[in-house]
Every structure is written in structure tokens, then in C-alpha cells.
Fold:
Amino acid sequence: SQTIHQWPATLVQPVGSPLSLECTVEGTSNPNLYWYRQAAGRGLQLLFYSVGIGQISSEVPQNLSASRPQDRQFILSSKKLLLSDSGFYLCAWSIGSARGQETQYFGPGTRLLVL
Amino acid sequence: DQQVKQNSPSLSVQEGRISILNCDYTNSMFDYFLWYKKYPAEGPTFLISISSIKDKNEDGRFTVFLNKSAKHLSLHIVPSQPGDSAVYFCAASASGNTGKLIFGQGTTLQVKP
Structure:
């Protein structure tokens, strides 16, 4: 069966510090991978998605970036965090289909607090 | 522009009764719809989905109804249980859009014993 891991679970960082959040998927090959952010009291906002190694698409312009160095590894980064980067970050995976009707499965999330 | 809307931020239901959560969308290209359940500080859990070629899909206590002409879907939970208390998100995607999901803002369901 497939499993998705995210770490760390919780992170407190000062403004201006760098960020690296990691997501790995087990039990599947060549998944589509996604990063979402949920701000307090809000819905889920898609940040990045990837359909393969080295292929990253950005949905929202911001000071975050994503990379996919391996098939089942997705990393969210920032060189300098802003207060507005605080939130709950979720990684998700799906199996791509020609019809595009894919179900996404989410990891446990990382709560980031920027002070 | 909010393409997927859940206009009720919260819903309170008595245990054993029916819970009905609603969702509206504006993009006529959406053809796949999903419901997720989320507990605090956890990732969303997939509940049930429906393709636009259907108007109903049922899985145990959960049934999703789709009204394409009204661009409206709803999730029915019968009977409701206290463990169903959580935030429920509806989401939608369009074919050929790399499976990207557009989420509603969520509805907090409280099921009272």
C-alpha cells in the first residue's frame, strides 16, 4: 500500500531564515506530487505540482520554491521566510490518468510558525 | 475568484440524524468532484468522489449528489456519528488539467451525542 510522509511535523522559524520541508511517497512509482498551504481558517491553496523528476509548476507567485530531486521526493524551500509564510503545509500525491480524474492523497502536514 | 464555494462555514447535527453538506462551483469545465474530511493538525482524508457522468455515488453512510445544471453538489452522511465531527472540504478538477484540485473553504461539522 502507498504511504506518504512529511517532516518535520512542526517548525518554528524566525523571519528571514531558510526553510526546507520534505515529502516522500512509498509504494508507488511516478506519482504526481503537490504542495498545498492552509492558512488559518482558510481552504487549501495549491502552491506547486510536479508530474515528474525535475518538472515543477508554480501556481502562486511567492518566495517559496519546490524541487523534485527523486521520483518520490518533493521538497518545499525558501531562502528567507516571511511572517505570511506561516501556515499548515500539506503534501499530496496522485496517480496521473489520461482523463485527469485523479484522487489526491494527503500527508500528515507540517505546521510552520514564522516569528 | 472562488471557483468552488462552501457557503456554510459550520453545521451542527444530532447523532443519528442526517448531515447535509453543500458545495457550489462556477467552472463548467469541472468534471470530477471529491469530498475530504479533515481533523485539526492532520492531513485531509479522501471520503468519496463523483464523476460528472453520474449524479449519485454512494459508499456506506456517505452519499454524494451532483446537480450539473445547478453546478451544485452535496454530501449526505446518514446516520451521523460523533466521530464524523471534522472539517469537510469539497474539491473539483477538470480533465486535462493535470489532476489539479480546487478546494472550497470547508464546512465544520459538529455531531452532538
Notes: Chain B has a mean pLDDT of 94. The interface with chain A takes residues 31-32, 34, 36, 41-46, 49, 51, 89, 91, 93-106 of chain B (CB under 8 Å).
